[in-house]
Automatic annotation (TrEMBL):
Protein name: RNA polymerase sigma factor
Domain RNA polymerase sigma factor 70 region 4 type: residue ranges: 150-200
GO molecular function: DNA binding; sigma factor activity
Region: Disordered, residue numbers: 105-142
SUPFAM superfamilies: Sigma2 domain of RNA polymerase sigma factors, Sigma3 and sigma4 domains of RNA polymerase sigma factors
Record's keyword terms, sorted: DNA-binding, Sigma factor, Transcription, Transcription regulation
A Pfam family matched in the record: Sigma70_r4_2
Family: Belongs to the sigma-70 factor family. ECF subfamily.
A biological process term (GO) from this entry: DNA-templated transcription initiation
Residue ranges of every copy of the RNA polymerase sigma-70 region domain listed in the record: 41-109
């Protein structure tokens, strides 16, 4: 049968992704050895990637090492790069696999919350914050304390729930994108997030109740 001359499905997908995702365009430039393109990608994602990895493995030093390995693998794979999803989905899929392998190798879950003075994990997204009652130093202190409590609560979630929350809240990923990273169905991701929200609500409710009593006393 004669070819119609149109793009194949994979080529059409690559064209669509490139048109709507500037990071896919950058990665295609990396594939073609455009000078400076890879450095731009690293600068764009490095801090975010280290933040998510720190939440996953619990140690900032290990997170930095894993982030370097993620970028190294991306660079080594550049010549065979064919866009199949958003660049961030591909990047965090690699990061998740490396983090899981790292934790299996150490035979442990992530360590507990870092000391607040040295915590390099990203600040909570606005949607996860509870506004301080006022702009006074005491109100600001309560805001900081609450964010620490929420961060600690996120750290107690099961690994898969924690990753789903991080990607949903910190990276603003859709259910479909999270499903691709975690190799789960969208329904499974929705279920993970629903259970995670219930657990977080249960853990935070006593703190919030005590804060309300303190604010009205």
């Amino acid at each position: 049968m004669a070819s119609t001359g149109g793009p194949s499905p994979s080529q059409a997908l690559a064209q669509q992704l490139s048109a709507r995702d500037p990071d896919v365009q950058l990665m295609l430039q990396v594939r073609d050895d455009v000078q400076g393109a890879f450095e731009v990608l690293v600068r764009r994602y490095q801090d975010r990637l280290i933040g998510v990895l720190t939440h996953l493995v619990g140690d900032p030093g290990d997170a930095e090492d894993l982030a370097q390995e993620v970028f190294l693998r991306i660079y080594r794979a550049r010549k065979g790069y064919k866009p199949q999803a958003k660049f961030s989905t591909w990047l965090f899929t690699i990061a998740n696999n490396l983090a899981l392998n790292h934790l299996r190798g150490k035979g442990r879950r992530p360590s507990g919350p870092l000391d607040p003075g040295t915590d390099s994990r990203p600040a909570l997204p606005a949607s996860e914050r509870v506004a301080a009652p006022d702009g006074t130093p005491s109100g600001q202190l309560r805001q900081s304390e609450l964010e620490g409590v929420v961060r600690e609560a996120v750290g107690t979630l099961a690994d898969d729930q924690r990753l789903a929350v991080l990607l949903n809240k910190f990276e603003d990923m859709s259910y479909a994108e999270i499903a691709a990273v975690m190799n789960r169905s969208e329904a499974a991701v929705k279920s993970l997030l629903a259970r995670a929200r219930m657990e977080l609500r249960a853990r935070l409710e006593p703190y919030l109740r005590s804060g309300d009593r303190a604010a009205t006393s």
